[in-house]
Amino acid sequence: MKELWIKVDESIPSHIKDSLLNLAAQVCDAILVSTQDAENVRKTGVEIAASSGDCDIHVLEAFDKGTIAKLRNMGKAVAVRVTIKGKEDEETAIKAANLSSDYIIVDCPDWKIIPLENLIAKTRGRSKLLAEVSCAEDAKLALETLELGADGVVLKTSNVDELMKTAGIIKKQAPKVELLPFKVVEIKQIGTGARVCVDTCDLMKPGEGILVGCQSSGFFLVEAEVHENPHVAPRPFRVNAGPAFLYTLSSLSKTRYLSELEAGDEILIVNRKGNTRLTNVGRVKIEWRPLTFIEAEREGKRIKTIVQNAETIRLVTPSGSKSIAELKPGDEVLAHTIEGGRHFGTLVKEETVIER
């Protein structure tokens, strides 16, 4: 099993750090942090890797035979980090592996492939070789080098979406979003508007769709057109999402207006259990159609959306889905809530934003 670590820099703003740690708790094997952040990582239940303090894996920034032996004798897990700039650095990594270090973490700033090939060949079976990477693309390359690949990666990022993509490559696992039942309190027909159909490069199943809403803090799960009916063939690649102004989650951390989506853009597919995966938009189709307004509430929080007034549009419920034509006050539908207030799709916690 390949391992995924993330390196969390102490200088990252606290709200971004919290998001990374929450996601890392789902997908990472270890979190490499400074001593100051170790306590927050401890709460996630994921192993802590650090250069000092109370940690599960001791990371040595310099090769030291005596320190490795001492930590091993104490029963501690040891990782030795080596920056590969020349042949002598490769030899250092090999020496660390020969001393039964649990992990060798290599940073290859210049030549990325050849040093990694050499180390895969010479350390395999002695230590786990982890490659430092800064993006999912580099992670994929490290796992495919010399066919066998590194034993894992240490991802250096402050981008939640990059962690999600890397987890998909390494763990074949996507993080979850929390979906909660909201009770419909109002549903009414309104005027005609520019409605957006999002055609994706994937095929969705019952209970899957995309998250949309009038507010950047609340999203309804609109189901893909997956159901048989007497009048229209299923289109499991499509979500009839709603008016062009609606927010959608294009990733775990970023919102987009439906009007902004274009062919090739990424979009987040979500199912009833909150499981997620990224796919790409194939096309966006905008047409003018009669619309329906929906408002729902949970524990005093109200969220709203607008969809086309047609029988084929369905909202996902805790046990199935329900057509807009059948929806009534008191029905429960699934929704996802997050902190609102966005600037070009990115959360700005310090800004006061009121959405109604």
Number of domains: 2
Task: Output the CATH topology of the largest domain.
Answer: TIM Barrel
Average predicted confidence as pLDDT = 89
Number of strands: 22
| N-to-C CA distance | 48 Å
Query: Which oligomerization state do the chains in this entry correspond to?
Result: single chain
Radius of gyration: 24 Å
Helix vs. strand class = alpha/beta
Name of the CATH architecture of the largest domain: Alpha-Beta Barrel
Helix residue percentage: 10-25%
Question: What's the SSE pattern?
Answer: EHEHEEHEHEHEHEHEEEEEEEEEEEEEE
- Broad CATH class of the largest domain: Alpha Beta
Proportion of residues in extended strands: 35-45%
Regions with pLDDT < 50 over 5+ consecutive residues? Answer: none
- Total of DSSP H or I helical runs spanning 4+ residues: 7
Please summarize what this structure is.
This protein has 356 residues and is of the alpha/beta class. The chain has helices at residues 14-27, 38-42, 65-73, 87-98, 114-123, 136-144, 160-170, and strands at residues 3-7, 30-32, 47-50, 57-60, 77-83, 103-107, 128-133, 152-156, 180-200, 208-215, 218-223, 238-243, 247-249, 255-257, 266-271, 276-298, 301-308, 314-316, 321-323, 332-337, 342-343, 346-347.
Describe the structure.
By secondary structure, the chain is of the alpha/beta class. It folds into two domains: 3-170, Aldolase class I (TIM Barrel, Alpha-Beta Barrel); 180-347, Beta Complex (Endonuclease - Pi-scei, Chain A, domain 1). Helices cover 20% and strands 39% of the residues. It contains seven helices and 22 strands. Strands 1-2-3-4-5-6-7-8 form an eight-stranded parallel beta barrel, surrounded by six helices. Strands 9-16-15-10-11-20 form a six-stranded antiparallel β-barrel. Strands 18-19 form a two-stranded antiparallel ribbon. Helix 1 (14-27) packs parallel to helix 7 (160-170). It is elongated, with a radius of gyration of 24 Å. The model has no long low-confidence stretch (mean pLDDT 89).
